[in-house]
Specification:
The chain has 194 residues and is of the alpha/beta class. 33% of the residues lie in helices and 15% in strands. The chain has a single domain, classed as Alpha/Beta hydrolase fold, catalytic domain (Rossmann fold). The protein has eight helices and six strands.
């Protein structure tokens, strides 16, 4: 059984749609997809919490989406990682977020929260640390929130980039591509190598 940690994006929860779709698509007798509530309001606390969670739960794969993708990139771990539409520079992207219509629980990120992420941003581009683990970036073809602006920055640091159909938030069309990459991480031969 492979333990997979899913890290949701800003304003998400353990009931994340992306996580639910991935969990439903993977064989239940082979994968255990875990999605804990983490202290997203402080990057240092989120980092500490998730590193401890990885260790205590024998995590075999980390998946992060959007802001969770950023957090997944900066974790000091050797666990293989897949990031979905990663928010590579939270201090630039988080201030742009507005509450969505028909989502009464949405709130704007606070300046205090954003300030906790800024010191970690260079870690997402640290080429030496990146070499210690397998990292795959997956970018939606029609990402309405981030577009493809971080694709080139990602390619500059990481050599494994894949594309998936759909937009920024979880959608069924992207799941086969994501599952294929997940299975490739655990394949006897590295079928996600370029």
């Amino acid at each position: 059984m492979k333990n997979v940690l899913f890290i949701y994006g800003y304003g998400g929860s353990p009931q994340s749609r992306f996580c639910t779709l991935i969990r439903e698509a993977l064989p239940k007798d082979e994968y255990n997809v875990l999605c804990p509530q983490y202290p997203q309001e402080d990057c240092n606390r989120a980092n500490d919490f998730l590193l401890k969670y990885i260790d205590e739960n024998n995590i075999d794969l980390v998946i992060g989406t959007s802001l969770g993708g950023f957090i997944a990139l900066i974790l000091d771990t050797r666990v293989p990682t897949i990031v979905l539409n990663p928010c590579m520079v939270p201090s630039i992207e988080l201030p742009k977020l507005e509450p969505r219509p028909n989502h009464p629980d949405d709130v704007r990120p606070s300046a205090e929260m954003i300030a906790t992420y800024k010191p970690f941003e260079p870690l997402a581009f640290n080429k030496e640390a990146i070499k210690r683990r397998l990292i795959v970036g997956m970018f939606a073809e029609n990402d309405e929130l981030l577009g493809m602006k971080y694709k080139d920055a990602f390619i500059d640091c990481y050599d494994r980039v894949r594309y998936m159909p759909g937009g920024h938030h979880g959608n069924k069309e992207a799941i086969p591509s994501i599952v294929s990459v997940i299975e490739g991480v655990f394949a006897p031969s590295d079928c996600i190598e370029d």
